[in-house]
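Session log. Operator J.P. requested a structure for one protein chain; no other inputs attached. Running the standard single-chain path with token output.
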Amino acid sequence: MAWNPKLYDSFKEVRYQPFYDLASLIAPAEKLKAIDLGCGTGEQTALLSEKFRNSSFTGIDSSAEMLAQSKRFENERLHFRLGTIEQEVKLATRYDLVFSNAALQWVDQHELLFPKLVTLLHTGGQLAIQMPVQKENVLNQILANLVGEEPYASHLENWHRDSPVLSMDDYAQILFDHGLSNIQIFQKVYPIIAQDHDALYNFISGTALIPYLDRLQHNEKQQLIHEFKSRIANRFTKLPAIYAFKRILIYGVKR
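Structure written below.
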């Protein structure tokens, strides 16, 4: 997928509060060896490295466009590299902190992924994860319904992406079964106040819409975008609009 760092960062204030909430769950520690899975532009990884000043951090991301922005944050304690989360969990490297903010929703089969994430931790290591609960978010629901209809289903050759995000009960069971303690899992609404419908469209166009547009020709893209915007306007009839964007935060410590 071709990510647009400028568009993604246009909602920085909205996207950063969940990061701060997730970071606040991490217990104080000295000399952590930490990894940020899906670090994006690296700015949040840099903020986290400042919170833990005697620790070393590695940020990985699969988007060269996003990762190109990270160079300005690199120092002797903070490094970035191109790679996928799927590749990382197969490596033998172990960490004191495995952190991922708004990235794991792009990785399939969480019932298999999360046990692998736990294996990346040393004993006493901390796992801190945040993801949007896409199935419960209205814009994602509108998009999912739209791409399943004609002519878009045919244009996409019936391709669609189901969110891999599981229930809080599922994550609690997985973490418990694989040796984590001090488990904290909760869902939180991060309201987005939109002055117009374009703001709502722009918010999702920088993330969940990308893989669909990547598969369409120019005219097909424009048709989908036009209809998507129309449905957003029909759903959010009162402006300014409040969009109750839901996210899940997950934390645990390896026994």
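Operator note: The mean pLDDT is 94.
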